[in-house]
Amino acid sequence: MDCYTANWNPLGDSAFYRKYELYSMDWDLKEELKDCLVAAAPYGGPIALLRNHWRKEKAASVRPVLEIYSASGILLASLLWKSGRVVSLGWSAEEELLCVQEDGAVLVYGLHGDFRRHFSMGNEVLQNRVLDARIFHTEFGSGVAILTGAYRFTLSANVGDLKLRRMPEVPGLQSAPSCWTTLCHDRVPHILLAVGPDLYILDHATCSTVTPAGLAPGVSSFLQMAVSFTYRHLALFTDTGSIWMGTASLKEKLCEFNCNIRAPPKQMVWCSRPRSKERAVVVAWERRLMVVGNAPESIQFVLDEDSYLVPELDGVRIFSRTTHEFLHEVPVASEEIFKIASMAPGALLLEAQKEYEKESQKADEYLREIQELGQLTQAVQQCIEAAGHEHQPDMQKSLLRAASFGKCFLDRFPPDSFVHMCQDLRVLNAVRDYHIGIPLTYSQYKQLTIQVLLDRLVLRRLYPLAIQICEYLRLPEVQGVSRILAHWACYKVQQKDVSDEDVARAINQKLGDTPGVSYSDIAARAYGCGRTELAIKLLEYEPRSGEQVPLLLKMKRSKLALSKAIESGDTDLVFTVLLHLKNELNRGDFFMTLRNQPMALSLYRQFCKHQELDTLKDLYNQDDNHQELGSFHIRASYAAEERIEGRVAALQTAADAFYKAKNEFAAKATEDQMKLLRLQRRLQDELGGQFLDLPLHDTVTTLILGGHNKRAEQLARDFRIPDKRLWWLKLTALADLEDWEELEKFSKSKKSPIGYLPFVEICMKQHNKYEAKKYASRVGPEQKVKALLLVGDVAQAADVAIEHRNEAELSLVLSHCTGATDGATAEKIQRARAQAQKK
Hints:
- This protein is of the alpha+beta class.
- Keywords: Coiled coil, Endosome, Lysosome, Membrane, Protein transport, Transport.
- Its main location: membrane.
C-alpha cells in the first residue's frame, strides 16, 4: 500500500496529484518537439507534428513533413506539405486536423492524412496575413480564431457551418498582444487579450477593459493565459511571477500563487477533475513542470526532455520523445482506499479480501468491523468507483475482487454498478492497448459516450475491435454492428486495387441482409470514388427501389433507373424518373425510350393529359394512334378553342383521325356535331338566345319552347331524330309551357307513335286532370285501366277491367279502392272474380 502511493504528491492538505506513464513512445522523432508545430486532440486523441517547419537554417528545397501519430506513437499518416506556410495546427471535435495557413486558408485533413476540404477566413485575413491562430471547442462545434497582421481578430464559432465574425478593434493597439485566448460566455465566443497591464474582452459588438478581481499590484504585463477545459475558469501568468486563478468572467478570484519565476512559461494548462472543489494549473518551462493551486506550496517535476501538455477533462497528458504520461488529481475513492493508515470502509474491505485469499482469520475481523459500522455497502461502492479510476488492470482486478467479496455479505446490493464497471473497464483496457492508442480515463469515457468511442475506432479503421465491443456490450444492431459494417463497406469500396466484382461480393457476404445497413449509401460512396460500375453492382443488393433510383439518376444511368422504378410498382418513383429523362434526353430519344416501357408510357400519357397536352399529341402522332389522336382533338376543341370556327376545324381534324383509325361511327358522330354547331350558330344569330353547345335534344326543346315548331321539326328531320323521340320532346315542352291548346292540336295532327298514356301522365304531372281526361279516353285498351286510374276514375277502370276479365287489372283497380267511396266498386270486383271462378 505504501509503495502504491509513492508517486502521490500532496497539494495542500486536501488533494493529491499523481503522474503515471501511459505509453513508452516509439515514434523515432528526428527533431525536438520545440522545432515542430504540435497539436494533440483531447480525449486520448491523435498527435499531429509538422516537422521542418520552415526553419531558416533549412534549405529552401526541403519541404515540411506533416505526420499524424496515435497517442502511443504509432504512425498513422505522413505526407509532404505542398501548400502555404502553416501558422497553427488544431484538432476538431470530429478528430479532423485543421491547418491554418498564413494566407488565411484552413485546410482540413482526416486522421489518415486524407484531404477533406478547405475554407478561407476572409479577404481581410488574406490581405493582412495571419500572425496567430487558435482552435477552440464549444457546444456548437469546433471554431477558429485568427489574429491578423493588422492586429484585428476574426473568428468562426463552427467550422462545419462557417460564419465569419470580425471582432471589434482594440483602441490604440499598435503591436501584437502579449498573450490571448478564446472564452465562451453565455454560449457566445469572446476573445480575451493582454496588452501591457491591461486586459480586453472582445465580443461581437464591443471592446471592453476588464480587471481581474483581487490581482496583486505591480503587474506590468501578462505573459501567458489559460482557460479551463470547460471554459469556466481562467489562469493568468504575470511578469511578476504570480499566477492568478479565477472564474472566466474575471469577477471572482479563486487563489493566487507566486512561483518566483519571471520567465514566461512555454505552456500553461488547467488540471482539474469533474465535480472536484480543487483547482490547479500546470505550468511548463523548458525543463521544469509545476503544479500550483490554492496551497502555499507547489508540486514540481523535472522534465528530462522537451515536453508538450495536452489539457483533458480530468487531468493533463504530457508527452515527449520517449514517454507519454498522465497527471491528474487522485480521485476521492482512490484516496480513501489507498491513503496511508486509511480506515475507510473501502480500505478495510480491500484488506479483508487480501487476507481471505491468504486464508487468514483477519479477513473475518475486517469484515466484522465494517459490518458493525454499517458501512459494507459504502465499502463495495468505494471499491467499484476506485477500480474505474485505476489505469493498471492488476489494480482494477484487485479492487473488483474486493467489491465482489463484499457483495457476498449483502442481501440486496444491486449488481448493475458492478457489472457495468466490469464492462466499461474491459472496453477501456482494450482501447488503451499500445496498438490502439486511445488512453481514455473512465471520466473521459463517460463524457465521450460509447457511440462516439465507436465512431473513433471506425475512424481509425479498427473495425474488428469496434464490432467486438458492440457484441460484448450487446448494443442494438442498428446502433452497433450494422453501423460499423456500413462504415467498413464504405472504406472497402475505396480499395481500388481490388476488382469491382470482388469488392461487391465481399461486401454482400459480410453484410447480407443486416438490418440498418443501406447498400445505397455504400454505392454512393463508391460512385464518389469514381467506381460507377461497383456502385451499380452494390445497388443490386439494395431492396428498396426508392433508394436505388435517385443514385442511378445521379450516375446518369437513367434507363436502368426507369426499369428499377417500374419493377417497384411505385408510380411516384416512375414519374420522378420520367421527368428526369425528359430533361436529360432529346424528344426523339425520350419517346423511343417510352415505347420500350409500356407502363411508363401509360403513366406519362396520364401526366400529359393534365400537364402537357402538346406532348400528348406528339406521342399519339409518333405511335400513329389515330383513335386517341381523334379523342385528343375533340377534347382540345372544347378546352382550348373559344371561336366556333376553331372548334369546327379541330372537330374536322378529329373526324379525319377517326377515319384513319377506321372508326366510322366516331367519325360520323363528329361530323354530326360539326353540323349541329354550325346550325346552332345560325339559330343563335337569327333567333337570339343561347343555342351553342346545347345537346341535340335540348336544341329541339329550346326551339319548341320558343314557339319555333317548324324549325324544331326540320332539325329533327335533318338529324334523323325518330318520331317517338320527337313526340316525347314536343309533349314535354308543350306541357312545360302549359300550352294545352297546342298540345291538343299536336295530339290530333296524326296518330301518336308513343300512344296516349304519356299525354295522360304528363298532364297529371302538371296537375291538370281536366286535360288528362281528354286523352284517357283515347288510350288503347291494353293501357286503358292505368290511364283511368291516373285520372282518378276508379269505377270506370273497374268496368273496363271486368270487361277485359284480366286478373292483374282487377287486382290493380282493387288496390286503388279506398274507404267507403269505393266500397261498391270493390264489391263489384269481388263479385266479378267469384263469377269467373265458377265458370
